[in-house]
Design brief:
The protein is an alpha/beta fold and 497 residues long. The protein has 2 domains: 3-249 and 471-496, Glycogen Phosphorylase B (Rossmann fold, 3-Layer(aba) Sandwich); 272-467, Glycogen Phosphorylase B (Rossmann fold). It has 22 helices and 15 strands. It has helices at 3-8, 19-34, 45-48, 52-60, 74-77, 95-104, 106-115, 131-139, 151-163, 202-216, 227-241, 258-263, 273-281, 301-314, 328-338, 340-343, 357-361, 375-384, 397-407, 436-446, 451-470, 476-496; strands spanning 10-14, 38-43, 65-69, 122-126, 143-147, 175-177, 186-188, 220-223, 245-247, 288-292, 318-322, 348-352, 366-371, 388-390, 411-413. The protein has a 7-stranded parallel beta sheet with strand order 3-2-1-4-5-8-9, with helices on both faces. The protein has a 6-stranded parallel beta sheet with strand order 12-11-10-13-14-15, sandwiched between helices. Strand 14, helix 19 (397-407) and strand 15 form a beta-alpha-beta unit. Helix 9 (151-163) runs parallel beside helix 11 and helix 14 (301-314) packs parallel to helix 15 (328-338). The chain is globular and about 65 Å long. 46% of the residues are buried. One 2-acetamido-2-deoxy-beta-D-glucopyranose is lined by residues 20, 23-24, 252, 264-265, 292, 294-295, 355, 357, 376-377.
């Protein structure tokens, strides 16, 4: 590629303000900058803290990457100071305020864009920040959607919308076969994303609809996935929608050195990382269960108790990460009064808050990952070659479960039948979706000896190499990134002539 042209390119990244969405996008930005393309990431001050150190290191190593901050409109949107992302909202009643705040960001973002040099050649933004569609029209710059998920997901949503099969069943327990997919995928209506079963809040529904339609008017979609994982779905999505799709993942593999692996995200635990490594070193290969139900999920204490008791009954070593503040006091009270932590001492470690997940997953002692199936975590496990136990709760998580259990066949479902949509937790009684017996059964299906388990482990292991190769020169994700750069360079050339 012509290097002078590269130096005129400028990609602007605008991540959605939720931790699981920010980090993959920052990784993607770093990958692009390593190709000698100028990249600017725009976010708010508090959201930058989890990755600004890693950007600083990139700059020091010569990458043309920059971080620019805009003030989060706390006062204007009615969100208390100190909260700038979806995870830290003091109450879920403020969800709509949060989306209003994203709209208010339009003007400050435009002011930043106006000053950029060279002027932006394209904006890569999360689909949930709807105002960027208006910005891209106003500035006449192509807008590329970053979808934090995979192609399976966007193809399911597309086919459900065009076929409307979900409207043909009224009962939320009814099974729907998602039409037009390479595999036979059955879902309960109650497992579909909230857009298919909208609630009474008209303003929130309007936000979701705006997000959905902005997909159709984007220049293309950038996905954190790779062709070797779901190539059939990539082809089919392109065929039915005519959209450009670039699969450039798994982007978390950019964090090659352990420092980056360890520093990802907030460091708010008091235990140092060597403690986990020492613990893992003391167990045989594939014997330890890693459990983490995500940062955004609001799991009830009753449900967490069932998981804890299941873990205890399994008699297997484990690392259990407990995140989020949802009814946290009640859980802590139980952990203390019940004596759980004391009983599992030596065999189980509890981590409260952030954990060095990539570091843990890549340890040979890990035998399975019980996950909420956020795509971020799911992909990290796939890249580490770890079998999964799937415990989806909402949004794309049920789709991701299908990718793991049916498409690549490296996991087992714990058996969740209904989603609890984000923010609706209090409407679901005790919030118990599966009891301890389901948890034990799923663990036994994956961990330990046996031909079926060994075969699953082999299938899972195969992806370590595939994932590594795809982002190296000659790999398909590497190639897709080149195609993206060339494509934008071509448009820029056209605009200037
Ligand atoms: C994914 O989420 C996990 C746990 O919530 C976190 O430790 C990790 O840093 C995240 N990774 C990315 C790529 O966002
Ligand atoms: C990251 O941001 C925080 C808050 O603005 C600041 O205190 C810190 O110095 C920054 N770190 C780096 C490495 O720039
Ligand atoms: C992405 O890479 C695959 C495999 O190399 C290729 O078939 C596909 O056309 C590429 N996509 C784009 C948009 O260039």
């Amino acid at each position: 590629m012509d290097s002078t042209l590269l130096s005129n390119l400028h990609f602007v990244f605008i991540p959605f303000l939720a931790p699981g969405h920010i980090l993959p996008m920052v990784d993607m930005a770093k990958l692009l900058a390593k190709r000698n393309v100028k990249v600017t990431i725009i976010t708010t001050p508090l959201n930058s803290i989890q990755f600004n150190a890693s950007i600083k290191r990139e700059i020091e190593s010569g990458s043309p990457i920059e971080l620019l901050l805009v003030k989060f409109p706390n006062a204007e949107s009615g969100i208390p100071e100190g909260s700038e992302n979806l995870e830290t909202l003091p109450s879920m009643d403020l969800k709509i305020n949060f989306f209003r705040a994203l709209d208010i960001l339009q003007k400050p973002i435009e002011e930043v864009l106006e000053k950029l040099s060279p002027s932006p050649s394209c904006i890569v933004c999360d689909k949930n920040i709807a105002c960027v569609a208006d910005i891209s029209i106003k500035f006449n710059i192509p807008r590329i959607l970053f979808d934090g998920t995979n192609c399976f997901n966007i193809l399911c949503n597309h086919n459900l919308h065009t076929s409307k099969v979900y409207e043909t069943v009224s009962d939320s327990d009814s099974l729907i076969v998602v039409p037009g997919l390479p595999h036979r995928i059955e879902m309960r209506k109650s497992q579909l994303p909230v857009i298919f079963t909208p609630g009474p809040d008209k303003e929130l529904n309007a936000v979701r609809e705006r997000v959905r339609t902005s997909e159709a008017t984007s220049y293309g979609i950038l996905l954190n996935t790779f062709e070797e994982l779901e190539g059939e779905y990539v082809k089919e999505y392109q065929r039915v929608t005519g959209h450009k799709v670039w699969c450039v993942g798994p982007v978390s593999l950019t964090n090659k050195d352990d420092l980056d692996k360890a520093q990802r995200g907030n460091k708010n635990t008091h235990i140092d990382e060597s403690q986990y490594v020492n613990f893992l070193d003391s167990w045989p290969p594939c014997s330890v269960l890693y459990v983490c139900l995500g940062s955004l999920n609001r799991v009830s204490p009753e449900q967490l108790k069932e998981i804890g008791l299941g873990l205890e009954a399994s008699k297997r070593p484990f690392i259990w990460v407990i995140r989020g503040a949802y009814r946290r006091d009640e859980l802590e009270k139980w952990l203390k009064e019940d004596g759980f932590e004391e009983r599992v001492k030596g065999r189980g470690i509890l981590i409260r808050g952030w954990a060095p997940q990539v570091l843990i997953l890549s340890h040979k002692a890990i035998g399975a990952f019980l996950t909420h199936c956020g795509w971020n975590s799911t992909l990290e496990a796939i890249c580490a070659g770890v079998p999964l136990i799937t415990f989806p709760m909402f949004a794309d998580q049920f789709y991701n479960e299908k990718v793991v259990v049916q498409v690549i066949d490296t996991g087992v479902s714990v058996g969740v039948e209904n989603s609890i949509h984000f923010g609706d937790e209090d409407k679901f009684g005790d919030g118990v979706l599966v009891n301890r017996d389901n948890v034990i059964k799923a663990i036994e299906k994956v961990m330990g000896e046996g031909e079926e388990k060994e075969k699953r482990r082999e299938r899972a292991r195969k992806y370590v190499d595939l994932a590594k190769k795809t982002i190296e020169e000659g790999g398909s994700s590497y190639h897709n990134m080149s195609m993206l750069i060339e494509d934008i360079m071509h448009i820029k050339g056209l605009n200037q002539s």
